[in-house]
């Protein structure tokens, strides 16, 4: 009788970080420089402060250097996470469903979004919706000439039931003025605050009554399998 195979162990955190780094380096040749700067700048500052403020005392000097090293490691993790996220999104840029992947994996807690488009056409252009402190944001995926009429139609639907809530547009596509995938979340964060936390939930629930959340995901990528490569 064959023995049951033991489940494979998940890679440790160091190995996960190395895998994230390797993936990022394939798409971002400048990652090594960024990580070195992130590590050496705080470490160098700690050394300088230790020499200047330590005044020859070994204990303060060591503390400043250790603090600089820890700050450098933390900054390395932050930089690696952001560059990895950008590299991951660059792999799906221009594919149908890419905006949905971003909304599913990267939205902040103050926003409610869905990877399923609320509207799309035969050309696989799509409209996604996010609700947050900036109000309702409609995101067009595809050429602006084709997505703008779709966005206008969805804005009319929103204003029909929520006339007081501000509605903004974000265009993600091949146009020169379009927003890149990795800049969608920062673009949402720059919107002026218009809703409270309780209002966000109420608006999101009200919009679900439009009955368009059952649309299938356009063929292209599977948002369930797209994740930004952040180190854990």
Regarding quaternary structure, what we see is single chain
Report strand %: 5-15%
And the CATH topology of the largest domain? Trna Endonuclease, Chain: A, domain 1
Radius of gyration: 23 Å
CATH class of the largest domain: Alpha Beta
Q: Residue-averaged pLDDT, rounded?
A: 83
* Shape assignment: elongated
What series of H and E elements makes up the topology? HHHHEEEEHEHH
Distance between the amino and carboxyl termini: 39 Å
- The secondary structure category is alpha+beta
Per-chain topology:
Elements: H1 13-27, H2 31-54, H3 58-92, H4 98-106, E1 111-113, E2 119-120, E3 126-132, E4 135-141, H5 144-161, E5 167-172, H6 184-189, H7 197-207
Parallel strand pairs: 4-5
Antiparallel strand pairs: 1-3, 2-3, 3-4
Helix pairs in contact: 1-3, 2-3
Could you describe the 3D structure shown?
With 232 residues, this protein is α+β, with helices and mostly antiparallel strands. It folds into 2 domains: 13-92, no CATH class; 98-225, 3-Layer(aba) Sandwich (Trna Endonuclease, Chain: A, domain 1). Helix content is 51%, strand content 11%. It contains 7 helices and 5 strands, in the order ααααββββαβαα. Strands 1, 2, 3, 4 and 5 form a 5-stranded mixed beta sheet that branches. Helix 5 (144-161) links the parallel strand 4 and strand 5 (167-172). Helix 1 packs across helix 3 and helix 2 packs antiparallel against helix 3. The longest helix has 35 residues, at 58-92. The protein is elongated and about 70 Å long. The two termini are 39 Å apart.
